[in-house]
Amino acid sequence: MSRCAVILVGLVAQLTVSAAFQRASLKTAIPDVFRFPSSCQKLGLRRAVAPGLLARNIPKTSSRQGTRVYVSAEDPMYRNMTENIYRQRVAAAQQQKREVDKETFRLLPLFPLHDEVVFPDGRISLRLFEERYIKLFSTILAGEEEIDPQKTDEYSPYFGSGRFGIVWRTPGPLPGTPGALARTGVAMRVVSHEWMGMNGARDQLIVNCQAYKRFKVDDIIRSEPVVEALVTPIKEKILPPDRVKAEIEICRKLIQVCDTVRKLSAEKAMRRAYFSMEERMRVLSKLTINEQVMMQLTGEQLSYWVATHMYEDLVDQQEMLQLPTPRRLRYQLQTLSATRDSLLEEAKALLNNSTGAEEE
Length: 360
Fold this sequence. Notes:
Blueprint: H1 2-33, H2 38-43, E1 61-63, E2 66-68, H3 77-99, E3 107-113, E4 123-128, H4 131-140, E5 163-171, E6 178-196, E7 204-222, E8 227-233, H5 241-272, H6 277-287, H7 291-294, H8 299-309, H9 314-322, H10 325-359
């Protein structure tokens, strides 16, 4: 009995060693047969599971997750698998874009503008023709219609994000020369896009965007081919109830001041152009601001509307973009009240001069 037991133990050990050797051989042979794309490794995906897709003379293994088939890179089906991997990566990026809160961005590509300061809730259209920006926005819009995957960079952190940043480029020391970038900008969300070009060349990309969040530029980490920066989203402070009431009163006064300034400025311009009284009244009626409608806006939204429609100086607009909402509202009320008083004094002086001339 003891001799039979020894023989049985020896057979079991021999079978165990043989099975282990086969598993080790199979494990070391697989990477030479199928090279897994790095895009899947970056996403954390496993090797492709393709039931029914068989490759000739290639070993297959089974696990709890199903049958795994490894395809050689020389196989024609490898191209189809890489296309599927690209679609999976696009779907994952779009899902992440939907799930991640819009205020959690930290790294953004920046698009400098020298002739406009954009505020949240504002819309802007960009006409892109430089190759570097076409590649950037193709990467940002990866997975959307009419976007060529060959023009995208699947390893970019902006792949399929659908957003970028706009900052104002200050004037340089000499006329016509660019200056430094402003330290506060706005995050933009791409709403729609369209390709244009002569004779179907599709070499220009029209991008329609909407601003939705201010940010502060912490550090410029790259300047070429496009500007990339580490940014910090600016969060609005929640006001206590007593401050909310005070802000509502400031908004009401600001709306009234804006209405007066618009009408006085238009009246001044029409006097110089010799408009008739009937034409003046028609224009002034169209410039009237509906206070009830404007009061439905929040203080932040109202301040952005005032900065966009009541100011033309880019330096003033950039300073207002950097201010918190309460200070921005007080600044606007103060400056526009001074403008209103100046226009009233000018109108009174003109009226007195015309009256004196008639009496003479």
